[in-house]
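DM from R.C. (forwarded with permission)

"hey, sorry to bug you on a friday — could you get me a structure for this? deadline for the figure draft is monday and I only need the backbone to look sensible"
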Amino acid sequence: MNFPRHNITMYLIHNEHKSYCEPLDKYSESWQFTWVNEEQKKLALEKDDVWTIQWYPDTPVGFYALAAHSLEILLKAACNESFR
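My reply, with the result:
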């Protein structure tokens, strides 16, 4: 499994909203995450199931953050330099 380059920290989380007893649509309103695409967002919201990844490539201040329903699609997008 490939992960994005991260010289500082990386977090991979599955269904964090369930820890807060909130529906995904409401919980995601406060996110700083970018959805990989609209199809992944739709699937995640329909199934109440989401993967998120946040990583700090160079400094503890600047980070990237993505969300998707599919872990495979999420990691593929995170490793793709073109979305940044």
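R.C.: lifesaver. The radius of gyration is 12 Å.
me: no worries. The longest strand covers residues 10-14.
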